[in-house]
Amino acid sequence: AVVSTQSTGEEWAAPRASSWDFVELWTEEKFRQHYQLSRTLFKTLAEKMPHHKDTNFRKAISKEKRLAICLRFLVTGACTNIIAEAFGVGKSTAVYAIDEGVAMINKELQFPTFKEEELHGIVKDFEIKCGFKGTAGCVDGTHVKVKVPADQKKFYYGYKGYTSIILLAVCRADLSMMFAYVGEPGAVGDRAAFDRSGLGNFLKQ
Prior knowledge:
Layout: E1 2-4, E2 11-13, H1 28-35, H2 39-46, H3 63-76, H4 80-87, H5 91-108, H6 116-130, E3 138-145, H7 153-156, E4 164-171, E5 177-185, H8 190-196, H9 198-204
Antiparallel strand pairs: 1-2, 3-4, 4-5
Helix pairs in contact: 2-3, 3-4, 3-5, 4-5
């Protein structure tokens, strides 16, 4: 909605209500279902988001809301128009928040370093639980369906037959995550995404 003041002739966009405005009233269970992580981890990651300053025309969107936009996009795979509407922001704002969130996640979720005894413990778990000798982690990838503008389709259309972004992950024998990398366009391919990931760079050292 656009609000006008006759005395000054100024116009500005009035804030749009969204479910995010009531997130503090949600139970921990509902929050986890919506964003696939705890409030504590969410707040920790939100602090890593870039800082935006208020302008003379509008108040900056909080780090928490921008992270929520990104996570909701990754969790649901919904098109950016739907995500933008759900959070009461413009499409370009939603796209920018998603890009910022993905960049932050990829930066923060780097391949961990282990002490020698810790690594031996992981290898031993794989041998006991899975029968795999000399294994320090299992890696796999998946393509997350996304909708993209028509002029970007060729970059995201992969061998799966739809537009997507690639998610790579490494887990221990107990299925707990050791590493994750997300955001490469589907047309890149699993191998190229692996080579560009923190894990790929780690193994090249």
